[in-house]
Amino acid sequence: MLIENMQMAFFAIRINKMRSILTMLGIIIGIGSVISIVSIGDTMRAMFADLYKNVGLTQAYISIGYWIEDTRQRDYFTLDEMEQVKEAFSDEIAYIDSSASASSKAVYKRTSIDFSYQGIDWNYQDVQPVNMVYGRYLNEGDILGRKKNVVMDTDSARKLFGVEDAVGRTFRTTLYGTTDDFTVVGVYRKELNAFQAMMMGQSENGSAFIPYTLLTWPNDYFYMLHVYAREGVSLDAFFSQVQAYCAKLHSRNPQDMYVQTAVEEMNMVDSIMGGLAVAVGGIAAISLVVGGIGIMNIMLVSVTERTREIGIRKALGARTRDVMIQFLTESAILSACGGLIGVILGVGLVAAGGTALGMRVVIRPAVVLIAVGFSAVVGIFFGLYPASKAAKADPIDALRYE
């Protein structure tokens, strides 16, 4: 019986090809939009998760709480205190620095551009490896000797010097009111896909790594600790211990210290992205309702056109239930076919976009299955009234219908 109903449904759809295509259009657009938006949202979430993994999920920043009003100089960290923290948690800490940074003009001959400088320790590459293409990375001698050496990326070198291989070249910059010559000892290449490059934009500014000891000079006080935990360490427990230890160093309560972890940031971004995807996907799903109304409208027309057919079937012994199932099957197939086409279009568009941008797209099979199933449900739901109208038709009146 089911196979017979499906055959009749496909026959009816083939007879009215253009009308059937236009009827399915709302479902096609709705399903395609939902799958595209959900997949784009999942892809963005995966991309941000990968970005956080690249910068390190085991890192955290520790400082006196921003809500503390009576901040004193002893609330700031010193290099000695940083060493104490490093020694106290030597088994858990993979890397630690002063989270120091600065911005200033970098001047080479007639070229002058804004540069941002990040202060790092010599072993920063252990937690944030880079692809060195020229020269070397900062070493322990650079840090301890407070040497004015820098490592920059190829784009920054090209902007300032006009060439990528800038090893050995010097430029002038001003930090904390003192102007000095800095020497490039290494150049690395940033690995970015097309989407990341597009998101970052074409900035005219440059960036470079310098010894963090240059950015704590001359009084060696700094506001924040930047800590990476070793892999396998329980992050919540570890950072709570570091928070308590830093509070003790400054004669503060642990609640006075602010700890900002990469995991918390990632979860917050993921939550925002997930909420936006659901909200926009919900708006796109409205088109499914519009498509369902279109199916109801066409099925009502179909019932009217086939009134005599319904009368003949009932006169030959077809039950009310049989007629109703026939029209429900037709509306469900109409909607499911639209859903399948929408899935193909949605997945195809997302995959093509991901290929063009050099991104790994995320398309969840569960979303595809739910979308197709939901489209069939929409067809059945909006086909109930037309099917019920057809099933309740009086066979005598139906046979008299012209």
Automatic annotation (TrEMBL):
Residues 283-395 form the ABC3 transporter permease C-terminal domain. It is a multi-pass membrane protein. The chain crosses the membrane at residues 21-41, 276-303, 324-350, 362-385. Keywords: Cell membrane, Membrane, Transmembrane, Transmembrane helix. Residues 20-244 form the MacB-like periplasmic core domain. GO terms for cellular component: plasma membrane. It is found in: Cell membrane. It holds the Pfam family FtsX. It comes from the Bacteria. GO terms for molecular function: transmembrane transporter activity. The keyword Cell membrane applies. InterPro entries: ABC3_permease_C, MacB_PCD, Macrolide_Exporter_MacB. PANTHER family: ABC TRANSPORTER PERMEASE YTRF, MEMBRANE COMPONENT OF TRANSPORTER-RELATED. Belongs to the ABC-4 integral membrane protein family. This is ABC transporter permease. It comes from Candidatus Enterocloster faecavium. The lineage of its organism: Bacteria, Bacillati, Bacillota, Clostridia, Lachnospirales.
